[in-house]
Amino acid sequence: MLTNSLAIKQIGTLLEKLDARIWQLSYQGKVYQVTFYPECFDERPGLQDMSWKVRFLSV
Description:
The protein is α+β, with helices and mostly antiparallel strands. The protein has 3 helices and 4 strands; from the N terminus they run αβββαβα. 31% of the residues lie in helices and 34% in strands.
């Protein structure tokens, strides 16, 4: 899974699970709350929706 990916860790990114479908992403001194589930994003629009990015990266 992306959240445990060695490639993610090698670029200095940390993903910590906050809730069932919400993670805290730390990258380059900034912190974001993200989700990979579009339905969760719809419920909490302040989250960064990562679901489309994962599909794009896996192509």
